[in-house]
Amino acid sequence: MFTNQKLKQLIIPLVIEQILAVLVGMADIMMVSSVSEAAVSGVSLVDSISILIINIFAALATGGAVVAAQYLGRREEEQACFSAKQLILCTTAISAVIMVMFLIFGRQLIALIFGKVDPEVLASAQTYLFITSMSYPFIALYNSCAALYRAMGNSRISMVTSLIMNSLNIVGNAILIYGLGMGVEGAAIPTLISRIVCAVLIVVMLRHRQDQIRLDSYFHLGFDWTMIKRILQIGIPNGLENGMFQIGKILVQSLVAMFGTASIAANAVANNFASMEVIPAAAIGLGLVTVVGQCVGAGKIEEARYYTKKLMKWAYMASIALNVCILLGANVLLKLYNLSPETLDIAFKLLFIHGFFVMVIWPVSFTLPNALRAANDARFTMSVSIASMWICRIGLSYVFGLVFELGVVGVWLAMICDWFVRSAFFAVRFRGDRWTRRRLIEG
Question: Mind telling me which residue stretches traverse the membrane in this protein (predicted)?
Fold first, then answer.
C-alpha cells in the first residue's frame, strides 16, 4: 500500500515540523527572557498547563485520524469525510468549554496547581493565560485538521501551516516585545493570532474537492454520537495517557528542585537537547498512525506488521545517526550555555544517559505503541504507560534520587527504567495478535 517514496513523502515533512516546533520553542523563551525573570517564570508556569491541554487536543485528533485512516483503507471516502466532521465538532466543543473555564477561573487554577507564587510572577502568568487560553479552540481545530491530512498521507500541509504559524509567532514576538516593549502581552498576542490564522487557513484548505477527506459544508454539521464514540475510543485513552504523562513530569520537576540550583539548570539544559534527540523517532511515530490505520482498515494485517517493522528500522537508524552526532559534540554544545563546572558536569551526564538510551530503547517505548493505537488498542497502551509512569518514573525517581542519593541523575535513570518496562510490554503485544482484533470498523 505504501512505496518507499510515499513513506518518505509522509515522514520527512513530519521530521521538519518537529524540528521547527523545538527550535521555535527555544527562540520563544529566549525572547521572553529579555522582558524579566518574572515574565519568564509566569510564561513557563502557563506553558506547563498549556502543554497538558494541547496534548489532550492532540490525543483527540489522533482518535479522529485513526478512524479516518481506517475508512480510507476500506476506500470509504464518504465515511472518512463524515468522521472528519465529527472530529472537528467534538474537539471544537471540548476546547471551547476548556477555554471558558480558563477565562473565568484562570487565577484560581494557577494558585491551585502551583500554590503561592511571587505576585509579579502570578500577574505575568495570569495575563499570559488569559490571552493564550482564547487560542485553545483554534489550536484544537488546527491539530484536528493536521491529523486528518496526515491520515490521508499528506503531511506537507501540516508542515507548511506549522511553518506559517511559528513564523508569525516569532515575528510577532519580535515586534511586540522588542519593538513596542509590551512584555508578557507581547508574547501572548502573537501566539493567539498565529493560531487563529493557521486554524482558518487549514480549515479552508480542507474544503479542497480533490482531497480524500474534505469538508463539503461548514453549516450542515450535526453530532453523530456513534461516530464520536469511535473517535473517543482512541482519543480518551490517549488523552488520559498524555495527561498523566505531563502530570508526572510536573511532579518529577518538583523533585528535581530539591537537588539545588545546579541540578535544576542542568535538568533544564538537558531537556532542551532531549527534545531534539527524539525528533526522528517521534515523527515516524506520527507516520505510523497513518500507515497502520490504513492497512488495518483495509484488513491487511500482515502489511501493517511489515510497515511497522520497516518504519521501526528507520526510526532506529535515524535516532542512532542523530544521537551519535549530538553526543560527539556534547562538550561543545553544552559550553554554549555558559554553565558552571558543576552544572556542566551534571548536564553532560544527563545528556549522555538520554542520548545513549534513545538509540537503544526509545523507539520501542514511544514509536511502536502508535501502531497499536492505530489498530484501536489504545486502552492497552494507556494502561501500560500510566502504570509504568507512576511505578517507575515517579516511584523510582524518589528511590534513586533521595534514598540512593543519586540526585537528578537518579531521576533520569528512573526514566530509563520506565522506558524499558513499557517497551517490554509493547514488544510482546506487537508480536502477538490481540492488537489486530480491535478494529474500530468491522470488516
Answer: 12-32, 52-72, 84-105, 125-145, 157-181, 187-206, 250-270, 282-302, 314-334, 346-368
10 Å Cβ neighbour count for 287? 27
Q: What angle do CA 399, 45, 338 make, to 5 degrees?
A: 75
The per-residue DSSP string of 7-56 comes to HHHHHHHHHHHHHHHHHHHHHHHHHHTTT-HHHHHHHHHHHHHHHHHHHH
pTM over 0.85: no
Locus of grid cell 518518505: 8
Cα(222)–Cα(219) distance, integer angstroms: 9
Residue-wise pLDDT for 277-296, tens only, equals: 999 999 999 999 999 999 99
Give the torsion sign (CA, 252, 192, 138, 196): negative
If we measure between CA atoms, which residue out of 364, 326, 325, 361 comes closest to residue 347? Answer: 326
Query: 352: exposed, middle or buried (C-beta count within 10 Å: 0-12, 13-18, 19+)?
Result: middle
Contact 57, 92 (CB under 8 A): no
- Torsion on CA atoms 437, 440, 441, 443, rounded to nearest 10: 0
Task: Please check whether residue 180 is in contact with residue 31, taking contact to mean a CB–CB distance below 8 angstroms.
Answer: no
Q: Give pLDDT tens digits for 379-401.
A: 999 999 999 999 999 999 999 99
First to last CA, the chain: 18
DSSP state of 433: S
DSSP 308-337: HHHHHHHHHHHHHHHHHHHHHTHHHHHHTT
429's CB contacts (< 8 A; 6+ apart) are 372, 377, 380, 435
Give the angle 132-96-69 at the CA atoms, nearest 5°: 100
Contact 409/350 with Cβ under 8 angstroms? yes
Burial of 111 (0-12, 13-18, 19+ CB in 10 A): middle
